[in-house]
Amino acid sequence: MNRLKEKIVAEGKQFFWIFVYLWVVLGLFSIHKSIVLQxxxxxxxxxFALINALILAKIMLIAEMFHVGDHQKNKxxxxxxxxxxxxxxxxxxxxxxxxxxxxxxxxxxxISIAIGGGSLKGVLVVGIIMFVVLMPFxxxxxxxxxxxxxxxYEVFFVRGTQYTPQQxxxx
Length: 171
Fold this sequence. Notes:
Helices cover about 75% and strands about 0% of the residues. By secondary structure, it is mainly α. The protein starts with a helix and ends in a 13-residue tail after the last helix. Helix 2 (about 40-65) packs across helix 3 (about 80-105) and helix 4 packs across helix 5. It has one domain. It is built from five helices and no strands.
């Protein structure tokens, strides 16, 4: 029973950090969209950002249960970071397209791809942006796996790192 509780707490923490990161990213995208398109539906889009972040965080946890990208774990960190960023940017794009489609249907409009201006180029650019935005997330995640999640958390949130100069070989 204690092991189950530990697992639930660990997954809850993991879900929380994934959710927060995605909510910030998707929230910023929705703010940007509202400003560029001069829309007055900022709160409406933030609601979708929140819901998408919750759904995508759960999808990411499930993907980790299925060990997505784990075949890259013995390679240099750049490989799993790039692979996972690519896979999850595709998932994010699919969810964004689904969101826009549902939004169009909700408003009674015809279904269209409204991401990136609706063109293939625009959709690809948004996908590339998402790919780049996910790289720091997966870089920290993979670094934490390499050095130990507890150690990475400690360095970031508990204590500051201290610089200790190395001895010169000439001395």
